[in-house]
Design goal:
single chain, alpha/beta, six-stranded mixed sheet, 5 helices, globular
């Protein structure tokens, strides 16, 4: 009988511990502002952006040389201020010095309210498959996810209603 109680207690403990571990997610990387984006040299430093479980996330990859990206940034800023339960985060893929200097200026003008990261990791052929198994590196690319549900848009959102429509199924 003691053995049975011990096994039952051990089983219950294991189940409770496993459930608690499944609920926790890695902390977000340090996020910068439009004025002062945080720069990371390797994707692994920001990988936890794609493993959060607390809300809906909209992660937008862009670059200063990408015209559709620049047109989309104000829409993302509007979305962040919409009152929907979500977090919008921009990730600039600029690597050249000119782009690194322009990124904060662009963000302050087009998306002043968004948390900002600059990722300079040149190995996008490998880390890109972590974000989306078929992503070719095209920009803009937006990942919208909540928990295990994930949508990847490898195109620009041309209107706010287009962007809002893509997010609404996950932001409830």
């Amino acid at each position: 009988m003691r053995c049975f109680r011990f096994v039952l207690a051990l089983l219950l403990f294991t189940v409770l511990c496993t459930c608690e571990l499944a609920k926790k997610s890695e902390p977000l990387p340090l996020l910068g502002t439009a004025e002062k984006p945080v720069q990371y040299a390797e994707f692994k430093e920001i990988a936890s952006l794609f493993e959060q479980t607390d809300t809906t996330y909209v992660i937008n990859f862009w670059a200063s040389w990408c015209a559709p990206c620049l047109e989309e940034l104000p829409l993302l800023n509007q979305l962040a201020n919409s009152g929907m339960p979500l977090r919008v985060i921009t990730v600039s893929l600029d690597r050249k010095e000119a782009g690194l200097k322009r990124a904060p200026e662009i963000l302050q003008t087009k998306a002043p309210d968004l948390p900002a990261i600059i990722l300079t990791d040149p190995n996008d052929a490998s880390w890109g498959k972590t974000v989306d198994r078929v992503w070719s590196g095209s920009l803009p690319t937006t990942v919208i996810y909540k928990g295990e549900l994930r949508y990847v848009y490898r195109r620009a959102f041309n209107t706010y209603s287009d962007l809002k429509g893509a997010v609404e199924p996950l932001a409830q």
